Amino acid sequence: MKRTIFRSITVLVVLLFLGCDGCGAPAPGDNVWPQGVDSIEGWLDVRGQPVDGPEDVDGLVDAMGERPLVLMGESTHGTQEFYEWRAEMSLALAEEHGVDFVGVEGDWSAARAADRFVMGQGDEDDVHRMLEDAFHRWGQHWMWSNEPFAEFLLEVRRFNEANPDRPIRIYGIDMQGFFESLDRLNERLGAKEGEEIDEIVDNLRCIGEFSPDPGRYARHLQAGDTEGCEEETTAAVRRIEEVFDGDETDELSLRRHARVIAAGERQHRKRLFGDPNDFWNVRVEYMAEAAESLLQAHGDDARGAIWAHNTHIGDARATDMADQGRTNIGHLAREQLGEDAVYAVGFSTYTGEVVAAANQGYPPQVMELPRADDGSVDEILARADESVFVLKFEEDDQRIPDWTRKPGQRAVGVTYAPQREVPGNYVPTNPAKRYEAVIFIEESTALDAFGGR
């Protein structure tokens, strides 16, 4: 679909006004376009690989190759196609290269039920009930209690039955439900005996006094106990990792529950007494650590796929997040594992419908997703002739003037106000530095969610 020439002229005028120092454009005479191309529209038509749907993922999966960590994004939590594409990519990657786990932006405690399901526990007909029972926390209850994720788990279960030597495991890499992890950990420890168990339980009592309401812990900190339960939760994590250091799933789960609790405590303390960005960074640092730990748990040749929002998986250094002091999984994973060990796939859509809530605690609803803001990444991608395509970036693409000026890319979370999305829902982005590839869907549809109905 072609957009009017007016928008391209407007962008050019703005760039000329700012100058190269303002926009980071290449020096005069430094041609960054492929041969025969002299505009972003021409570049899109040459480089965009048209696809019919998620089944056409072979070329993208080949590009992922043997990289240990594949990050699969989403520009909204409530778009059907993003879930379908991630499911297809994950299964194709497992078939072609092997995948040991899929880590989702969901709570560790909730995702344990999904993992047990794909490993053969329960009946296939119970998948909907299992998801609704497991992912009951607000926001999570439609992000993971939905039809495409249920279908994905069924496919994974069947894959695992056929490939028992290398099954796909399902893990939650988030830490916001830390009191649920505390409950699960106390249940597990209650069935064990020994002085070291008593020591761990004693240390967990400090944070346990405020369960199940994180707000009570925050008010306790505000009342003057600025150190809170930091010492006790840190000691509990250290002791659990010493006592339960095996490779079995049960011991891995104990260690992760402990890490979730410590991250939850730290996040609430930092929110009150730390830098304004600490609340964000504690969470994403936990998620990056979880991804790395899961790779380690699965051995030297392990490979994992992570499903999380674009703001988590795209390299923060290619956005204004880094300027604000924020990091994310995409940034940290590259630093910890190596640039060539990570492959990030972002998603973009121009218009359609989306599932989100009008405010915190409100029920999910289908909302209009307005046409993307003029000059944004999403609007630029919509200028291509094709309505659904894959872009695999090359290094020189980072220097294209349309990308070096960092146009905004839309980001919709669990809450959304379409009438007020500009500029708050747009992240200044050089997409060719933020991702290895982007999947563009011009008109997307609302997630078929059954959680929260």
Word description of this protein:
This protein is α/β, with parallel strands linked by helices. The protein folds into 2 domains: 1-105 and 146-160 and 307-453, EreA/ChaN-like  fold; 177-302, Four Helix Bundle (Hemerythrin (Met), subunit A). The chain is 46% helix and 14% strand. The protein is built from 20 helices and 11 strands. It has helices spanning 5-18, 20-23, 40-47, 58-64, 80-96, 108-118, 127-134, 140-143, 147-162, 178-190, 195-208, 214-222, 230-243, 249-273, 278-297, 310-313, 329-337, 377-381, 401-404, 431-434; strands at residues 49-50, 69-72, 101-107, 169-174, 304-307, 342-357, 364-369, 388-392, 408-410, 426-428, 437-444. The strands form 2 sheets. Strands 1, 2, 3, 4, 5, 6, 7, 8 and 11 form a 9-stranded mixed β-sheet that branches. A two-stranded antiparallel ribbon has the order 9-10. The longest helix has 25 residues, at 249-273. Mean pLDDT is 92; it is low at 1-24.
Summarize this, please?
The chain is of the alpha/beta class and 453 residues long.
Would you spell out the secondary-structure blueprint of this structure?
Elements: H1 5-18, H2 20-23, H3 40-47, E1 49-50, H4 58-64, E2 69-72, H5 80-96, E3 101-107, H6 108-118, H7 127-134, H8 140-143, H9 147-162, E4 169-174, H10 178-190, H11 195-208, H12 214-222, H13 230-243, H14 249-273, H15 278-297, E5 304-307, H16 310-313, H17 329-337, E6 342-357, E7 364-369, H18 377-381, E8 388-392, H19 401-404, E9 408-410, E10 426-428, H20 431-434, E11 437-444
Parallel strand pairs: 2-5, 2-6, 3-4, 3-5, 6-11
Antiparallel strand pairs: 1-8, 6-7, 8-11, 9-10
Helix pairs in contact: 4-5, 5-9, 6-7, 10-11, 10-14, 11-13, 12-14, 13-14, 14-15, 15-17
